[in-house]
Amino acid sequence: MAGESADRVRDSGLPTANASEGDRESVEPSVTKGLPNTRMQRTRSSPSALRSPLMRCPLGGQAVASRSRSQIFRLLSSAALSLTALVGCNGPKVPSSATTADVERATAAFHEALRTNDAETFLSFVADDVVMMPPGEAPVRGKDAMRVWYATFLSRYRTSSLTLGDREVFVREGFAVEIGSFEWGIIPAAGGTPGLDRGNYMQVWRQQPDGQWRFEREIWNSSAPAVK
Which of 5, 149, 171, 186 could bridge across to 176 with cysteines, CB 3.0–4.6 Å? Predict the structure, then answer.
């Protein structure tokens, strides 16, 4: 079943390569720059088809050697724990449950907008200084560039389903880090064979001066096996 879905992804022209070592290394300065010197609080939630990560845009990109899904997820988990190691004990207090709930509401609405192809709502959660690093593509820097990127995606594809698994959210006062795995169903905008991609992701959210939470950073990969 998974192999047939992966074949369909390749047949539709979607790249399915994993993120390269350069992609993974480039996320660290983007994610950690400016983070407060504090300890993060970790929460878990169950998989949900209604809260899914911003997935890999099938706009092209050179295939690279594939890695197993479990190996890539362990790398992302290690990166999140490295963020924890950067913080100390003398910073602001752990956020209240209300703050954590605010983060969850923001990420849920953001991912639901992606799931339902709602560009206006999707972009309303994107920070002005957003940096997104899709596999096989140059980084997307700034909200205007994100608007163009997503419009191009919607001109070619529609999301038909999004499923999130292994989700973890590390919340601290003023910022949050989310990691997890995904399965993403898409269909060509002009009609055709549906595709299914899967992989792992990491996002950074930051609370803005107006109190709202905004999507600031993301890097992700595709773990679907390469077609032989």
Answer: 171
